[in-house]
Design brief:
By secondary structure, the protein is mainly alpha-helical. The protein is about 75% helix and about 0% strand. The chain has 13 helices and 2 strands. Strands 1-2 form a two-stranded antiparallel sheet. The protein is globular and about 75 Å long.
Length: about 290
């Protein structure tokens, strides 16, 4: 009897956690999946009409949907690449010991503490064509009057995202650099290896897992970016910066096509899962 109670005790402890996961994650996910096979307008109400795969077929056969995916892919590739390059440079800079290093790292990571919606509004004023500081600096340096959110809308949102999330990439890479064994660096220095060979043989194998993890997190997060871009451009001008997340928001909360919106959400979910698996395979292949 005592042995049986010992076996049941861990199960009893885990039941509340399983119940929370079921009711807050699994049940809403299954409910939304079921709703994606129905035509339903939450504003009009009424009984949902079963349409099978029609919502998915309609979305995947619509050129507008594919244009939004291309826009999203352009944004993701541009912003993650820029953040990786800048983050790597900053990590190499802060890897060196110098006076005020901790204060400098703290200041550089400050954008991570700002809410994305607030960052979008903040940059909207910075880019303002009349009194924005960015517009003034460009005019002072080049003599050109530009309107970033209209003339260079995609560049504007990429720079905003890079400003906020480059410190995230920097912290991951810096953590990897700090984990490089000192004795290996000393041995490489004694053997008079060039900086490039030292990086290739000693540093890169150590930081590679953290770099791949940082790229994975940022790619997933960039793919579902909504608040900063919506606050800055609302997807405009026209549809130049309308990411798939903004399209999803409009289908769900502007047009109230609930069934179609849930279908689009699951298409996005599948793409994110495929991207995750691709990154993991690439990381495994590079490791081998």
């Amino acid at each position: 009897m005592h042995d049986r109670s010992e076996k049941l005790f861990p199960i009893i402890l885990i039941i509340p956690a399983l119940a929370i996961v079921f009711f807050l994650v699994i049940f809403p996910l299954v409910w939304a999946l079921g709703l994606s096979f129905y035509r339903y307008n939450v504003l009009r109400g009424g009984e949902p009409i079963f349409v099978g795969l029609d919502n998915y077929i309609k979305l995947l056969s619509d050129p507008f949907t594919w244009e939004r995916f291309v826009t999203t892919a352009t944004f993701v590739v541009s912003t993650v690449s820029l953040e990786f390059i800048l983050g790597f440079g900053l990590a190499l800079l802060f890897y060196q010991e110098f006076r005020g290093r901790r204060l400098a790292i703290t200041l550089v990571t400050m954008p991570l503490l700002i809410a994305p919606i607030a960052a979008g509004i903040f940059f909207k004023y910075i880019y303002d064509a009349t009194f924005g500081i960015f517009t003034y600096l460009v005019w002072a340096l080049t003599g050109m009057k530009i309107n970033m959110t209209k003339d260079y809308a995609m560049l504007a949102v990429v720079l905003l995202d890079a400003w906020q999330w480059t410190p995230f990439m920097m912290l991951f890479i810096l953590a990897g650099l700090e984990a490089v064994p000192k004795h290996l660096l000393e041995s490489a220095e004694i053997d008079r290896l060039s900086w490039l060979n030292r990086f290739r043989v000693v540093i890169w194998p150590t930081i590679r897992p953290l770099v791949m993890l940082a790229l994975l997190f940022r790619t997933m997060d960039a793919f579902r970016t909504f608040d900063t871009v919506f606050a800055l451009t609302e997807g405009g001008p026209g549809t130049q910066t309308e990411l798939i997340s903004i399209t999803l928001y409009r289908v769900a909360f502007k047009y109230f096509r609930t069934g179609e919106a849930t279908a689009l959400a699951f298409i996005v979910l599948v793409i994110v899962i495929l991207l995750t698996n691709l990154y993991l395979r690439m990381a495994r292949r590079v490791g081998e």
